[in-house]
Amino acid sequence: MNKITAAITAVNGYVPPGILTNKDLEKLVDTTDEWIVSRTGIKQRHILRDPALATSDMAVEAVNGLLKKRGIEANDLDLIIFGTVTGDLVFPSTACILADKIGAKNAFAYDLSAACSGFLFSLETGARFIECGKYKKVLVVGGDKMSAIIDYTDRNTCIIFGDGCGCVLLEPNTEGYGVIDSILKVDGSGRHFLHQKAGGSLRPPSHETINAKEHAVYQDGKTVFKFAVKGMADVSAKIMERNHLLPADVAWLVPHQANLRIIDATAERMGIPKEKVMINIDHFGNTTNGTLPLCLWEWENKLKKGDNLVLAAFGGGFTWGAIYLKWAYDSPSAV
Ligand code: UT7
Fold first, then answer.
1. DSSP H or E run through 211
2. Residue where a domain terminates, one of 176, 193, 215
3. Which of 5, 47, 289, 324 could form a disulfide with 18 if both were Cys (CB 3.0 to 4.6 A apart)?
């Protein structure tokens, strides 16, 4: 029998209706639309404004849509892996909450924490479960309600992030489609440059941590930028090289959407022209775990069976990596 690979057989996404534009941010912090667009490429981001809703609620929308598209029931799922840094609760996992809300009674489920690389790490993990032959339907979700951990008086961070969630279904394939190769990396010494200081066991919530705004994202942008440009470009170029992929062989680069300048640098190192790069940072901002599946969702109609995709990400940890996969289906409405 041919080797089993893990193919993406469906994709869906959800962003909340609320929109926060650069003009809105000009009223909150000392910034300008021109600065934000030229330094990041972001024009607006979606925000989950209803305080009663959390990350799992965006996932419910995305996943229910995916199940409908694929024509399966929640009970058909064997496993749910949820990449997020903004889980509904500290515990239990948001994957457990999602499983309950969609009625997935036959799946086990857990969260995976790898900051902006969480979807990439979850995809790799899900692929291994499929390849072992025991699991037939693995749902990989990536999503964050970043607005829950952003300080809207800090211009270094509040201009970057947005809310959103995407998901893919992995199923076994014996024709060589799906996840082919991956390079995943961490360097924990990078934790000092991008983190949420308080709320964990090191600094449990207290009046002091709240007053010091330590429950919001802290980022040393310049340092993270430097590592991100090198990290994402290095692994993306390496995964092409070791799979003998020339720029013409790559149909799409699917990059994490942290900064348009990081995306451009990665594409340039790979020799990939801009028209083959998925970019949604202009209208979604950085949705952390949501960026990659939201790209796949928005570009689904353009994807063709056999397309070579390189997914790449860089995030807090530091965590980073690239995955090479062969797209497994023509979208019913492909143009
Ligand atoms: O997704 C996880 C991984 N994260 C990333 O990959 C993000 C990586 N970092 C970045 O994308 C960029 O570093 C930022 C977008 C965060 C910042 O852009 P930058 O070009 O690195 O700006 P900077 O921090 O070097 O700041 C340049 C100047 C500073 O002023 P001075 O010192 O030159 O007078 C900042 O104070 O821009 C100022 N500045 C701003 N001005 C207007 C910083 N933030 C803003 C702002 N509006 N929002």
1. helix 207-211
2. 176
3. 47
Domain containing 50 equals 5-176
pLDDT in tens, 289-318: 999 999 999 999 999 999 999 999 999 999
Model confidence pTM above 0.90: yes
**Domain termination site, one of 122, 156, 176:** 176
List 116, 158, 165, 167, catalytic entry: 116
Question: Domain with 44 in it: what CATH number?
Answer: 3.40.47.10
Q: Are residues 237 and 309 in the same domain?
A: yes
Concerning whether 244 is annotated as a catalytic residue, the answer is no
Task: Report the distance separating Cα 174 and Cα 76, nearest Å.
Answer: 20
Ligand 1 centroid, distance to 156 Cα (angstroms): 6
To the query of whether residue 75 is one of the catalytic residues in this protein, the response is no
Q: What are the pLDDT digits (tens) for 166-203? A: 999 999 999 999 999 999 999 999 999 999 999 999 99
State the virtual CA torsion across 66, 72, 74, 76 in degrees, nearest 10: -130
State the Cα–Cα distance between residues 122 and 116, nearest whole angstrom: 11
295 belongs to the catalytic site: no
Q: Is there a single domain that holds both residue 138 and residue 190? A: no
Tokens read off for 90? 């500290």
Q: In terms of domains, do 171 and 198 share one?
A: no
Terminal alpha carbon distance of the chain: 34
Ligand 1 in reach of 31 Cβ (< 6 A): yes
Domain-located, residue 335: no
313 touches ligand 1 (CB under 6 Å): no
